[in-house]
Amino acid sequence: xxxxxxxxxxxxxxxxxxxxxxxxxxxxxxxSVEPGYLRHLLPTEAPQEPEDWDQIMRDVEDKIMPGVTHxxxxxxxxxxxxGNSFPSILGDMLGDGIGCIGFSWxxxxxxxxLETIVLDWLGKAIGLPDHFLALKEGSTGGGVIxxxxxxxxLVTMLAARAQALKRLKAQHPFVEEGHLLxxxxxxxxxxxxxxxxxxxxxxxxxxxxLEPDDDASLRGQTIYxxxxxxxxxxxxxxxxxxxxxxxxxxxxxxxxxxGKQLQRFPGVWLHVDxxxxxxxxxxxxxxxxxxxxxxxxSFNTNAxxxxxxxxxxxxxxxxxxxxxxxxxxxxxxxxKHGYSDAAxxxxxxxxxxSRRFRSLKLWFxxxxxxxxxxxxxxxxxxKLAKRFEELVLxxxxxxICNQVKLGLVCFRLKGSDKLNEKLLSIINxxxxxxxxxxxVGDRYIIRFCAVAQNxxxxxxxxxxxxxxxxxxxxxxxxxx
Length: 480
Ligand code: PLP
Known about the structure:
- By secondary structure, this protein is an alpha/beta fold.
- The protein has a domain at 100-357: Aspartate Aminotransferase, domain 2, CATH 3.40.640.
- It contains 14 helices and 11 strands.
- The protein has a 7-stranded mixed sheet, with helices on both faces. Strands 8-9-11-10 form a 4-stranded antiparallel sheet.
- Helix 8 (220-232) packs parallel to helix 9.
- The mean pLDDT is 96.
- Residues 80, 148-150, 193, 195, 243, 246-247, 273, 275-276, 302, 314 line the site of pyridoxal-5'-phosphate (PLP).
């Protein structure tokens, strides 16, 4: 494809994307296909000869789209939002066009410097303390874009592990490192995302999963008692992962309490995973949810969830960048450059070497919407969630199962878990609406999240009508 054809096909692609997004509500939300469906529609080998572009696009519509779950559909209410917006798509397109691989400052200075600057912008807007900002006088911290929240948790745990092992080795110089490793204990709540468990598996450390309170919030006393008990057993607490806005029910761990208790265990790394909720802290009225952040060593939120930025764009800030990078530095000669001491090399801040120009899309989003536009978007979703909550509360057959602080409402039919499983299953099978369940406090709940960027009050009412129709049908069947 030459640039003349790229211009033509590029315009067509923009047209295709616009049509797709504008007519989404004519499609089923979820596909009705069985595993392996695509294998029967596509050849078993790549074409030997070039194929016609129009034919490829026809196959997109006829073969690929029938297997797509439409996350931007106005009736998609599962998981959390998948960030998407035109400025972000265009920013990503430009990044792809530039096609640089910014693993070090020298590999593409703008790629590194823009990332540092936009992470400072966003960190300030969220209300992170100054020590998390790279360009603040005297700060030792800074921000970086990772692929996912899971990676943020993993790299902070790796850094905490390296710090803890260094300390232990200094105290016990003749003890083998493998033995010291076997003593390390990480902590999180039962409501933490499963990525904490995965990180502990990769780091080869023990993880103690603690019971939260009745509001699904992990409390300071629980952490304190667990750590004290473990220390008495000869174990070494080294890392705590807290969550602001849990995946199941958007609950908030009690960060001020936990932070205070951790003062009694110097050297323990406190991480805050706010993958979804963290974006909302750009609104002044929601900043109280961030209370306790002054105790944290690191904080992550996914702009690619709730800040109109396409995947991938998971933002991580650390209090002390040397503590992060010292766990990850490997410095072969072919990657060294003349400014290694003076500039940031993001390859030391994460697992991969190669890095996309991801800050461009975030920069386009922050500039095109402004913080005020993004606040409006967040508040709009919260308003929609509140509207949904009111509808649920009006129908006495249902109950609300979480404190609706942001865009997620958890609800269920008053009745057994089985009944609620059936309800969700018939709704999802219909393809009219998509939600997912969670287990909170060992109860099966249905999660309804405000997701589509421009969702309206009518969309929420319509979704509720669908839920009520299926509930009526199910309850009637159950009576006979
Ligand atoms: N942490 C929390 C609180 C989440 O809600 C999620 C996903 O929803 C994750 C971590 C995992 O995010 P990612 O897919 O970016 O790894």
